[in-house]
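User: Could you check the structure of this?
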Amino acid sequence: MKPYEPSGPLQPWPRRSSEPLGDYHIFSVRRDVASSPRTGRDHSFFVIDAGQWINIVPVTDDGQIVLIEQYRHGVQEFTLEIPGGLAEIHEHDLAEAAGRELLEETGYQAREIVSLGACHPNPAMQSNLCHFYLGRDCRQVAELELDAGEDIHVVLHPIEHVPELVASGRITHSLVLAALYRFMLSAHSA
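Assistant: Sure, the predicted structure tokens are below.
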């Protein structure tokens, strides 16, 4: 992903120091001190470092989108999402990682996986990217392979219902919304 270039006179903030604060298995936290190019003053910033995230929009050959329902501890509610997760450290092919997440969380496999792009989940405090993929012609080939900390229920919806699922607030996960937006853009540009 190519970095954004500002149209105005903005300059990068030089980092003066970086101090690790904690490692929590799936992410770590550090404190950076950077200088404002405008004022020359130093400021502290807390940054969450995590591996690359992946989400996949799985679509069956008959126009259904494969979604998952699960309980999310951050909000203490059930959510409706697309499959996704953290790419394993050894996984350099993120499309393959997306296919793995799809199979583990839904039992579905895609005939083809194509990139839909990526986004910064929260560039104010996170250093990683979330990569979006489209899984074409998905079909169920296996049972779910859930991690011990997961309980997932698979549901299918016609693609044309996606805007209503978003508008009604049934889909609220911001990275899922971003992936679905990229999916809808790709459908209209094809």
